[in-house]
Amino acid sequence: MLDRLPEYIDPLHLADKRGALKGRIPLRSLDRLAKLLVNDAGFVAVDLFFGREGRLAKVEGRIETILELECQNCLEAIKWPVDCALKLGIVSSIDQANRLPEEYEPLMVEEEKILLKNIIEDEILLTLPAFPKHQHACFVQKIDNNSVEPLVNDGQSSPKNPFSILAKLKHTGDL
What we know:
By secondary structure, the protein is an alpha+beta fold.
């Protein structure tokens, strides 16, 4: 696996040659994604294959990484594994994008060469949740010096019904 992938690629040329790119991209080089991370150390493993299916130029492959996002409940770091498969159809117009088979997403190419990191970054951003949270109840409130109480209701205790007084009146006949 290469540590250094090309910065710019020509996807149509790679599709004609049935090219492959396999390597790693540092997370800190993905500017838009790095702003969302608690820690931008690490790499994205990239494994892409370019080819043609009839007249359709395509990119298929896989992107894998582990991101450190900020939990939106407790504001602590949360490890978020990303393992996404790519299936992109290379197009140069909206009409071509509309004619793509359903299993392909469009990769709009307006110039001959494009930044490889933009493709990778777009695909990772599409997989991220809007509000990343731990799977366990992590949001707690300190009561005393040593004890903590979760603020999130786990469904173990039922909330007090504000209309319970009416139910009592109905059964006593005072209504």
